[in-house]
Amino acid sequence: MDSVTQIVLGAAVGEAVLGKKVGNKAMLWGAVAGTIPDLDVFIRYFTDQITATELHRGFSHSLVFCILLAPILGWIVHRIHKKREATRVNWSWLFFWSLVTHPLLDAHTVWGTQFFWPFEYRIAYKNIFVIDPLYTVPFLICLVIAMFHKRSNPRRRKFNNAGLYISTGYMVLSLMFKWYAQTSFKAELEVQNVAYEEIDTKPTPFNTILWNAHIQTEKGYRMAYFSLLDAQHITFSHEFPKNDYLLDNIRDQHVVQQLINISAGWYTVVEDENRLIFTDLRFGQVGVDPDNSPFLWQFELLTDEEGMIKVNRLSGYIENTDYSKVFSGLLERAGGN
Known about the structure:
Blueprint lengths: L2 H20 L1 H12 L13 H7 L7 H18 L7 H19 L26 H15 L6 H38 L6 E6 L6 E7 L3 E8 L12 E2 L12 H10 L3 E6 L2 E11 L9 E9 L5 E6 L1 H4 L3 H12 L3
Antiparallel strand pairs: 1-2, 2-3, 3-4, 5-6, 6-7, 7-8
Helix pairs in contact: 1-2, 1-5, 1-6, 1-7, 2-5, 3-8, 4-5, 6-7
């Protein structure tokens, strides 16, 4: 999730754990803890772009990381606030819960988290977009109201808990919406007699009303959108061929294996003159026309004189996109057919 949401969650968890004893300092240090796992973005300054992407939400979003770091931070903050009522153990618990709820929340997004590092398996429920105002705004309002009450005032805990309950309730609701959307996609595939091997469903940006499906067929993929307000049949795109054979001569190269790993196998390859275009499908399209909207994550694979593959992220079409039209199209489609 976005940084603001993680700060709000960390602060609310810190308050729930230690607010009665240390007041707003619990929110402050909870907010700090809520941002720490995302510091892995600085990996990109020490390695290449693809490796940094592969490592994102890895170790820093794991249970091991939370267990190791919490007592260290608890000891440091206890030294800073040693005259306060909280003990080192109290502070350690605050940091553990504020740290661990970060990857647990991120696990609900498309990218997911490697929570059980060092195992490579990623948890990704794909039921909420990385920025969702309906999750964050009510949560933030409740937190701010709680902040302006004294720590001894019972209304402080009530408002903080209300934010936790509302945000958690919305998350549960989004899981129900995902189930309904996926059920609708599957039912329509059966009605239209579309053969498929696997289906991947996720929400579109900033909402849980409009859902996007990637349908894996025998030779490629088809795309579709479904709004919870739709009254008509779902329209599936033409088939995007996977063209996996285009990687046969370079598949063993490390960077190609990295791209396949990052995409979790959901990718297509297109040959364009002397280069290959590798498209990671999981992050969707720029627009809601499943046949004509470009995909968000595309990489150019170039072969150098020694036969090694060099990778460039393609972003020119993103920079030239009129996002006002994209968002207006998104709102219109979310309103139903």
